């Protein structure tokens, strides 16, 4: 589909999980409907909004107003922005604040923010009084298409990213696409890597559509809602078939085995945002697939070209500070990958491509081959 799209009414995507099914509501201005939706879903509930300082500046008042207009009591918990909050200390702060706000079993926690806030607030909700329901109000593109959907919640350990957590599905996701207008171009691009991921892993037609329509997604045209809805539908379908990642859900980790190692090698700092790590990681996965003879070099180049065309980093050398500080050697990157959750009995799992739009889980890739491949990539 390449014809320009028109802005449409809100789009609702259903995450079909039986009695834990929930809606993802996508559209410009849907944040104003939060109060009425929460009132219908959980009459009489109190709510606590967990957010960070930057998001609070832009969106907290509007969120509180929507809830107040529907007669819903709210309290607020504001954390520091960034991974510094996805820690034991951040979890303690949020948990104690929720207890102090008297959030009980039938009440709701509302996660207003990007991936960090969603993961942290979701995990705090999962363990508070052995489980309180929560609503995701994702305010970054990455959170709207990935982290707010599917119920993965958690915090980091000093020993690795997302090593502590729980599957805890939200009861509602409100993805207001107009809130993305305040994101920096770099943050928006980082989220776009996860949008492109859905095309690369399972939907060649969507990837082709993205190649033709990405400018409209970035400028806030109707293609934005279409891209977010298509991404959420793809994720919802996979999550409803494999909620606990016993199989197919692992495909959503395309680009993440390499990406997480690169994030760790750059100290989880501003040198590399998560989505940027996924972009470089996805290109490495495509190139490794080509090296193994699974796809053609032309397909790997096509993935690289599209991500580069929107300004995403696609090579190790594109990572900020590579020329000055370097990155890590191939052995260190291998060790970092071995620390990832995707390790099973010491074996690394990679998501590889058999075609654009057809990803597979590979548990049997020879570590020495991956090490040599990384060595070669590091030397450009
Ligand atoms: N972000 C990968 C997943 O939710 O499974």
Secondary-structure topology with pairs:
Layout: E1 11-15, E2 22-27, H1 34-41, E3 47-52, H2 53-69, E4 74-79, H3 88-100, E5 108-113, H4 115-127, E6 133-138, H5 141-147, E7 152-157, E8 160-167, E9 172-176, H6 185-202, H7 204-219, H8 222-241, H9 256-265, H10 274-291, H11 297-309, H12 322-325, H13 330-338, E10 350-355, E11 358-362, H14 367-378
Parallel strand pairs: 2-9, 3-4, 3-5, 5-6, 6-9
Antiparallel strand pairs: 1-2, 7-8, 10-11
Main location: cytoplasm
Protein name: 3-dehydroquinate synthase
Binding site for NAD(+): 81-86, 115-119, 139-140, 152, 161
- Name of the CATH superfamily of the largest domain: Dehydroquinate synthase-like - alpha domain
Amino-to-carboxy terminus distance: 37 Å
**SSE string:** EEHEHEHEHEHEEEHHHHHHHHEEH
SS class: alpha/beta
Strand content: 15-25%
The largest pleated sheet is described as:
7 strands, mixed
What ligands does this structure carry?
Answer: glycine
């Amino acid at each position: 589909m390449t014809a320009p799209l028109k802005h449409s009414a809100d789009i609702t995507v259903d995450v079909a999980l039986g009695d834990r099914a929930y809606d993802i509501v996508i559209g410009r201005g849907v944040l104003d409907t939060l109060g009425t939706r929460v009132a219908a879903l959980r009459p009489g509930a109190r709510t606590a909004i967990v957010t960070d300082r930057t998001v609070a500046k832009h969106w907290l008042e509007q969120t509180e107003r929507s809830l107040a207009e529907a007669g819903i009591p709210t309290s607020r918990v504001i954390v520091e922005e960034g991974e510094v909050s996805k820690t034991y200390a951040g979890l303690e702060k949020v948990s104690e604040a929720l207890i102090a706000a008297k959030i009980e079993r039938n009440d709701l926690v509302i996660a207003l923010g990007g991936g960090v806030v969603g993961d942290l607030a979701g995990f705090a909700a999962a363990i508070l009084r052995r489980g309180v329901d929560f609503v995701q109000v994702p305010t970054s593109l990455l959170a709207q298409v990935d982290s707010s959907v599917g119920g993965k919640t958690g915090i980091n350990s000093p020993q690795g990213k997302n090593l502590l957590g729980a599957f805890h599905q939200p009861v509602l996701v409100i993805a207001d696409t107009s809130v993305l207008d305040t994101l920096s171009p770099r943050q928006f691009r980082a989220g776009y890597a996860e949008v492109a991921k859905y095309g690369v892993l399972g939907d060649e037609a969507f990837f082709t559509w993205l190649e033709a329509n990405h400018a409209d997604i970035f400028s806030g045209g109707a293609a934005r809602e279409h891209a977010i809805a298509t991404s959420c539908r793809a994720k919802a379908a996979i999550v409803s078939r494999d909620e606990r990642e016993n199989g197919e859900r692992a495909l959503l980790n395309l680009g993440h085995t390499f990406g997480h190692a690169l994030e760790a090698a750059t100290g989880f700092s501003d040198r590399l945002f998560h989505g940027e790590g996924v972009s470089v990681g996805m290109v490495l996965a495509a190139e490794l697939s080509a090296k193994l003879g699974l796809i053609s070099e032309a397909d790997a180049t096509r993935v690289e070209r599209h991500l580069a065309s929107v300004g995403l980093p696609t090579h190790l050398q594109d990572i900020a500070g590579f020329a000055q500080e370097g990155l890590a050697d191939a052995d260190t990157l291998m060790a970092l990958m071995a620390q990832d959750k995707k390790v099973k009995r010491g074996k690394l799992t990679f998501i590889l491509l058999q075609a654009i739009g057809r990803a597979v889980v590979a548990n049997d890739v020879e570590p020495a081959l991956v090490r040599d491949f990384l060595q070669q990539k590091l030397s450009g």
